[in-house]
Amino acid sequence: MDLPQEVSPREQAVAERMRSGSRIPVHGGRRPHHEVDRLTDPQQGSRSPSLSLEPLQDSDADVYAKFFLSHCCYDAIPTSSKLVVFDTTLQVKKAFFALVANGVRAAPLWDSKLQSFVGMLTITDFINILHRYYKSPLVMLWGKLQQFYQRKASNENQATHKPSKTKKLLSMSPTELLDLSMNTFLNALSSDRGYYDGNCLRVQIYELEEHKIETWRETYLQYSSNSLISITPDSSLFEAIYSLLKNKIHRLPVIDPESGNVLHILTHKRILKFLHIFGSMIPKPQFLQKRIEEVEIGTFLSIATIRETETVYDALAIFVERRVSALPVVNEQGKVVALYSRFDVINLAAQKSYNNLNMTMQEAIQGRWCCIEGVLKCYPHETLETIIDRIAEAEVHRLVLVDTEDVVRGIVSLSDLLQALVLTPAGVEALFS
């Protein structure tokens, strides 16, 4: 069968190897990782005995597992792609602006002192930073003001002259303070500068603009001491899928072990596109004709959604607490009207509006500055093949499963599909382990 016209020369070469049945050339003369009989657990750095791969059965259910076992990560790297690398001494604000300017969602972090890559800066970091800084400053200021006036209370003359605006703030709880806009809070404080140094209490969300990446990692990231999860070019795509799902990450750096250079950032989306390109050259499994309601691939219980009237800060809290990558936005009738993803949050950096997290979801969606994936839906009666084609062609990370009334019934993500199509037939469970 002919390949799509948009394939690269490298993909053409992969196709020729598939037609001829020749083996994959080994990078640098090393033995490909996918020839071993056990998978490597990226976190442990050693072979995991619980992941022993027995020879796959000759049934069409494991055709995709065999396909990804026979192709290495280097095969999936596009001929031309953009890669941005940040030094850990770069300011956080500049780093996120650079992500926006270059149209990328993540960047490897280079530590000049260690002379090695130490991690990734992603949109998840931006969400965690906003969630932490937008909340803690108000609570911190509330505590400092309480301490200030407790000291003042020892002097009755001074205690009787508490400014009315600040006194009102002191009567509020930290939770109530969070409902105030930052401007309202700071304006109340600035009117009473005679009673404290307003500058010293101006909050850390502004200091965020001066923080370096290394400061954020050292101070707030509990996992910052862990080594970077990566993969080599000659590791199988099967191993890459396992690593992505097992470690619950969306980006996997492909690093050349000889030079130490990052060659590419492998994603679920790129892996599925690779399958979509070459899918016509391998047998099509019969289970692709099953309806999604039959195979039950996806998440159908405790679906995380958000109402139009809720705020961006509410969305950030759900992202952090539920560790989901997107939220269906529903109206009063419970019908899905939009999808707010983690990538949408970077829009706050693009518009320099990360101090205004009290805007409603409706306002945030209307204020999108670029073309971002809308609500791509699927229905229980549609086949698995239809759903895979829709995700691959639209280049999105998930579909919202809805009923005939457009009420959310589930989410079908790339992780769900890769687990069901590739790992499960091979007897490997990564997504829920």
Automatic annotation (TrEMBL):
- Lineage of the organism: Eukaryota, Metazoa, Chordata, Craniata, Vertebrata
Q: In its UniProt record, which GO terms are filed under biological process?
A: fatty acid biosynthetic process
GO MF term list = AMP binding; protein kinase binding; protein kinase regulator activity
Listed GO CC annotations: cytoplasm; nucleotide-activated protein kinase complex; nucleus
> Which Pfam families did the record assign?
CBS (PF00571)
Can you name this protein?
CBS domain-containing protein
Name the keywords, alphabetized.
CBS domain, Fatty acid biosynthesis, Fatty acid metabolism, Lipid biosynthesis, Lipid metabolism, Repeat
Q: Would the keyword Repeat be found if you checked this record's keyword annotation?
A: yes
Limits of the CBS domain: 78-138, 223-284, 297-357, 371-428
